[in-house]
């Protein structure tokens, strides 16, 4: 009963061909879990269901034992869940600073943005720029920074490496590991970029056509050549 | 020359009302991507309420306040009870529902208050001061400028300086993302409608004493002028709406002054058509910010 997030028998989709089928998953506090799989495996659907943007057919989602399905999307952040959607979800019409403020807006008093700017000095330089003026890497930093401004316990990250240079991806992964170590942040990381995800994950879960096909320690998945070939294709 | 100066000041005073009414249209457009064609009828309905209160209590200012508050409530109600349930996959749906609201509101007003013009007194003198022999502005004109100016300043402060303003903008630009960040998107939409309708009611109270009086269709021509102003300003820009309103006011004043008052309504429609054909994004449109 120590699990932060507990997903049981989750089925999502319509009719006979669900997008997700009977998915079971747990994330412990301070743990990074990587959900891996090809395009269309159901990774984004999983995250969107967890944060209430999609209704599940059956199954349960519990945070600290509370039924997440009974909580409205706009109240999730109060329960410690921050979701960085695919494509980053930066509000491009707002400035960097406004986007960051938006992240902490529900807290009273509103948190200082200085820690976020220390984490991402680049965002401090661009704080007056609007979202559409940022590069892809800067947008990803902004989306993660904004999620952190909400001071979550669980971060849901959808494809943070998408469209980013390997160097920036590595920076972001290092930052996540550092945050986990310092603050006990739990991360559910959805990635196509298997190597970089497993470089920081504690556990790897492989989704294929909506089903979990294997689940192992990240180290085991990387080291075991047979597992790697079978499920990760390298 | 004297006539030109007079027409200019008169046009700016009318334009200020169009600006406020156009601002109301822009507020709803930004929040919900609907052109609220019922704005005029809603403003008239609250003006009837305001003047009823003013008649009953003998205080114009109390009636004015009641009209604006009634506008806020009516706006929130229209969003909560009607617009929330409109399928927004096609922009036409919202327009048709808004036009239906116009018919309902005008019909109900006619049943309650009758379809003849009721005189609506201005609270302040409409006789213009003369400066250097030219009649420029009346006390009432100054009140109009003051009220519209205050609305513009207050809305600007709300949207740029307050957490609620930030929430409203975020909810309008990116509803799904805003929800994930804890913004009550539905509530922000209701608030947007309430504010817009409140501003619309204020504009209605300001303009009706300068027209023929209260009538269920009293705001129809004002609506067309203000809609033209909003389109001139690009429909998305509050500053554009204010500038567009002043511009339309000036233009109408010159046209009715030099060519005759009967030409003015046609001139507004002509202007609307020209703008929609030649600059559908408005005169002040920036390059599109949203590309992805």
Automatic annotation (TrEMBL), chain A:
This is ABC transporter ATP-binding protein. InterPro entries: AAA+_ATPase, ABC_transporter-like_ATP-bd, ABC_transporter-like_CS, BCAA_Transport_ATP-bd_LivF, P-loop_NTPase. Gene3D superfamilies: P-loop containing nucleotide triphosphate hydrolases. The keyword NADP does not apply. Residues 5-234 form the ABC transporter domain. Belongs to the ABC transporter superfamily. One of its GO terms (molecular function) is ATP binding. It comes from the Bacteria. SMART domains: AAA (SM00382). Keywords: Amino-acid transport, ATP-binding, Nucleotide-binding, Transport.
From TrEMBL, chain B:
This is Branched-chain amino acid ABC transporter permease. It is found in: Cell membrane. InterPro entries: ABC_transp_permease, BCAA_transport_permease. Its main location: membrane. Pfam families: BPD_transp_2 (PF02653). Keywords: Amino-acid transport, Cell membrane, Membrane, Transmembrane, Transmembrane helix, Transport. The chain crosses the membrane at residues 12-29, 60-82, 94-114, 142-159, 180-208, 261-278. The keyword Transmembrane helix applies. Belongs to the binding-protein-dependent transport system permease family. LivHM subfamily. Coiled coil: none annotated. It is a multi-pass membrane protein.
């Amino acid at each position: 009963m120590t699990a932060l997030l507990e997903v049981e028998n989750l089925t999502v989709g319509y009719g006979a061909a669900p997008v997700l089928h009977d998915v079971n998953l747990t994330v412990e506090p301070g743990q990074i879990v990587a959900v891996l799989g090809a395009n269309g495996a159901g990774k984004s659907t999983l995250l969107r269901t967890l944060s209430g943007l999609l209704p599940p057919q059956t199954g349960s989602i519990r945070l600290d034992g509370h039924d997440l399905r009974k909580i409205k999307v706009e109240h999730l952040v109060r329960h410690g869940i921050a979701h960085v959607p695919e494509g980053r979800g930066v509000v491009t019409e707002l400035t960097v600073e406004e986007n960051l403020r938006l992240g902490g807006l529900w807290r009273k008093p509103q948190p200082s943005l200085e820690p976020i700017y220390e984490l991402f000095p680049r965002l401090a330089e661009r704080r007056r720029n609007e979202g559409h003026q940022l590069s892809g890497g800067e947008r990803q930093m902004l989306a993660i920074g904004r999620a952190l401004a909400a001071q979550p316990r669980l971060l849901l990250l959808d494809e943070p490496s998408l469209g980013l240079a390997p160097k920036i991806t590595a920076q972001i992964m290092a930052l996540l590991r550092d945050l986990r170590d310092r603050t006990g942040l739990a991360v559910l990381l959805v990635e196509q970029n298997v190597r970089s995800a497993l470089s920081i994950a504690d556990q790897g879960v492989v989704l294929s056509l909506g089903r979990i096909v294997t689940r192992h320690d990240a180290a085991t998945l990387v080291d075991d050549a047979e597992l790697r070939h079978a499920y990760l294709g390298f | 020359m004297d006539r030109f100066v007079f027409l200019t000041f008169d046009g700016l005073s009318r334009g200020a009302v169009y600006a406020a009414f156009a601002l109301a249209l822009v507020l709803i457009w930004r929040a919900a991507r609907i052109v609220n064609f019922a704005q005029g009828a809603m403003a008239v309905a609250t003006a009837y309420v305001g003047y009823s209160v003013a008649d009953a209590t003998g205080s114009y200012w109390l009636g004015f306040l009641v009209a604006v508050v009634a506008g806020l409530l009516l706006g929130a109600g229209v969003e909560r009870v009607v617009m929330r349930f409109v399928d927004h996959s096609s922009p036409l749906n919202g327009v048709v529902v808004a036009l239906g609201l116009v018919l309902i509101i005008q019909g109900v007003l006619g049943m309650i208050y009758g379809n003849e013009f009721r005189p609506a007194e201005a609270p302040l003198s409409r006789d213009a001061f003369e400066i250097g022999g030219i009649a420029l502005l009346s006390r009432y004109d100054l009140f109009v400028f003051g009220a519209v100016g205050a609305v513009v300043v207050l809305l600007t402060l709300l949207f740029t300086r307050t957490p609620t303003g930030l929430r409203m903008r975020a909810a309008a630009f990116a509803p799904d993302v805003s929800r994930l960040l804890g913004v009550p998107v539905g509530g922000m939409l209701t608030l947007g409608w309430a504010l817009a309708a409140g501003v619309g009611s204020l504009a209605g109270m300001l303009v009706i004493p300068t027209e023929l009086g209260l009538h269920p269709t009293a705001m129809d021509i004002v609506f067309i002028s203000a809609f033209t102003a909003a389109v001139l300003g690009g429909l998305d820009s509050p500053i554009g709406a204010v500038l567009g309103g002043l511009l339309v006011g000036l233009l109408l004043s010159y046209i009715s002054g030099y060519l005759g008052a009967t030409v003015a309504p046609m001139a507004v429609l002509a202007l609307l058509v020209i703008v929609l054909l030649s600059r559908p994004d408005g005169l002040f449109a920036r390059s599109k910010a949203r590309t992805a």
